[in-house]
Amino acid sequence: MKQWQEPCPNFTQSYLNIAEHSRIDLEPECPSDMSSSTSPTKIRQPPSLREALRARKHLLLLSVLTGCLFIQPFAHGKLVGLFVYDLLLSILVVSIILAVFHRRYERVIGLFFGMTAVIGNWTRHEVVFHAAMPILLSFGFVVILRSIFEQKVIRFDDVLGAVCGYLLVGIAWGNLYILTELLIPNSFQMNTNLVASISDPHAKRFVFNYFSFVTLTTIGYGDILPTSPVAASLAWIEAMFGQFYMAVLVAQLVGLNMAQAAAQSSDGAPGAH
Questions:
Q1: 75 half-sphere exposure, CB direction, 13 A CA radius
Q2: What is the domain extent for residue 243?
């Protein structure tokens, strides 16, 4: 009888290697994204109050602007109305500084002329107020217009910013008209009802803001006429500026909207990615 012989060590090792490889191949592979799926999902945090206010900065500024313009004709002659209007005007100055100016030099300039205008308003120094306010409003308009031209994607708040810029220009020119009347008396001819009302400083602001927006939109009712060369020059420059602003701004907004629509259509087209 043949004796049992131990298997060859090389054969045994080869068999174990084959069995090990077979076991590995038969085991189901764990998906590579299994670990990521079991990891806790990162919850998107809601925007902070500061981010939410910055995203709607022009909406807030427009609200303050319209509030000031709405209360202005009812403020003169009433102590409570005057206080509310002066308070809203101070809030408007602060809103312009916070909502429009973001760079350091912008806020320095805005703070200087804004505080000068606020102090001149509360202390009833008309020349100081009407000299500082147009500079602040004009500078705010320039910054808003620059930000619109720098935009690549147009948002609804940017459109409201263009409306704010239009209102700022109208109020700035109204202050220039008052400053002209203060420095050069009888620079404007108006009907008797308006002449009686401009004796009050707050009523005077309403009258010349009205004349400013009538000139800016080139309506021209004829109830107020510039008689001095300075006043006449301011009037025709404002009329030209109003038309130029509307034409350029509408072209810019339409161009941005068309570019944005073209980019979205190209991204959604087949084979775009």
A1: 22
A2: 56-262
**Residue 44 within any structural domain of the chain:** no
Q: Looking at residue 172, what is its pLDDT?
A: 96
Greater confidence (24 vs 236) lies with: 236
Calpha distance 99→86 (Å, rounded):
20
Q: What is the pLDDT of residue 195?
A: 82
Q: Tell me how far CA of residue 222 lies from CA of 84, 213, 236, 272, in angstroms.
A: 31, 13, 14, 58
Strand partners, 90: none
Mean pLDDT of 84-108: 92
- Rounded mean pLDDT of 134-144? 94
- Whether residue 84 lies inside any domain: the answer is yes
Find the CATH number of the domain harbouring 73: 1.10.287.70
239 lies in some domain: yes
Stated pTM of the model: 0.76
In the chain, the number of structural domains is: 1
